[in-house]
Design brief:
Uracil-DNA Glycosylase, subunit E; 6-stranded mixed sheet; alpha/beta; 9 helices; single chain
């Protein structure tokens, strides 16, 4: 597998996050994230877009890792924090707050007071991709960052938000045969990790009712039960 090599170091997650933000390994993603940062959405014209790779965020002692697909062009690519500043994040953080993993139900910008408890949020790909569709090569090039976080965190339980994250995690946590199939509420044990599946909190899922607040809450209530068992 190709990927960004990750080594342990004294600064741990902070050092890893710093290296994430300086990555320019995928030309297509670099060009797109920076173009979005220049050609801003009118509602955010006064924002200085982050327009860089987005590092993971949360509790460095987290036992739970939540993995999404990639930063949204006008969400995390604007704010610099995973699932922050868009409706997917609104849906996710509200659930994390209801289930005790987040200090508040909203995530508007870095420095807004939000903290995570026993939870770390990250993504399979760290740059906003065109049409929200990273390629398999971009996923694999980015894989070292996710691997590095998993190595540095004490987590043993992972929630995959969507099928793309599920497949990325199987590549990191495996090998396992036969590969467990993704679905909402799917559960598997892969290596030393427990794996839970959830539909992604995208508007395509939340606006259509494919994913409801109760459904997402159920995933995190299950996660809490596993952690506290």
């Amino acid at each position: 597998m190709t990927g960004v090599p990750v080594a342990r170091d004294a600064n741990g997650l902070d050092s890893l996050s710093d290296r994430v933000t300086r990555c320019r390994a995928c030309p297509r993603l670099v060009a797109w994230r920076e173009q979005v940062g220049r050609d801003k959405r009118a509602a955010y014209a006064d924002w200085d877009y982050w327009a860089r790779p987005v590092p993971g965020f949360g509790d460095p002692a987290a036992r739970l890792v939540v993995v999404g697909l990639a930063p949204a062009a006008h969400g995390a690519n604007r704010t610099g924090r995973m699932f922050t500043g868009d409706r997917s994040g609104d849906f996710l953080y509200a659930s994390l707050h209801r289930t005790g993993f987040a200090s508040q139900p909203t995530s508007r910008r870095r420095g807004d007071g939000l903290t995570l408890r026993d939870c770390w949020i990250t993504a399979a790909v760290r740059c906003a991709p065109p049409a929200n569709r990273p390629t398999a090569t971009e996923r694999d090039t980015c894989a070292g960052w996710l691997r590095g976080e998993l190595e540095l965190l004490p987590a043993r339980l992972v929630v995959a938000l969507g099928g793309f994250a599920w497949q990325a995690l199987l590549r990191q946590l495996g090998p396992v045969s036969p590969q467990p199939r993704f679905g909402h509420g799917a559960r598997a044990v892969v290596g030393r990790y427990g794996l839970l599946g959830s539909y992604h909190p995208s508007q395509q899922n939340t606006f259509t009712g494919r994913l409801t607040p109760d459904m997402l809450d159920d995933v995190f209530v299950t996660a809490r039960g596993v952690l506290d068992a």
